[in-house]
Amino acid sequence: MRAFSPDAILCSGFSKTVAPGIRIGWVHSTNFMRKTASLKYTSTMGTSTLSQAAIAELMRSGGCDAHLNKLRRELASQIQRMRQVLLREFPPGMCVSDPEGGYVLWVERCRRRR
Question: How many CA atoms lie within 13 A of 50 on its CB side?
Fold first, then answer.
C-alpha cells in the first residue's frame, strides 16, 4: 500500500509474537507521524518506559529475530502435527490444506479429479 500512497499508515505490535501482555506496538507514516504520535499520547498518556526499553533491547540484541525464528519452527511443527491428526481422524474424502506459512488449516471436501 505504501508504494502506492504516502497516506498509508503502517502499524503492528509485539503482543502476538513476543509477550501477550506487553501491549507495545509501532506505527509509521510519511504524512501523519506527528498527528499519530499526538493522538497516541493524549489517548493513553504514554506507555510503560520499562516495557519499551525491554522491547528495544530485544530488537537491538537480535533476540527478537532469534525468538521469531524459534516461534516459526514451533508453529510449523504444530501445524504439521495437527494436519496429520485431521487427515487420520476425519472421514474419507476430506482434504486438509498444507500451508507454506502461517498457522491456519483449511478443511474441505475433496473435489473429484477428472
Answer: 1
Q: Which residue has the higher pLDDT, 46 or 53?
A: 53
User: Cα–Cα distance between 70 and 66 in angstroms, integer?
Assistant: 6
Kindly write down the DSSP assignment for every residue of 23-40, as one continuous string. Answer: --EEEEETTTHHHHHHHH
The single-letter code of the amino acid at 17 is: T
Largest CA distance in the chain: 62
Asked if residues 35 and 46 have their Cβ atoms less than 8 Å apart, the reply is no
What contacts 24+ positions apart, CB below 8 Å, involve 27-31? 30/2, 30/6, 31/6, 31/7
pLDDT on residue 45: 67
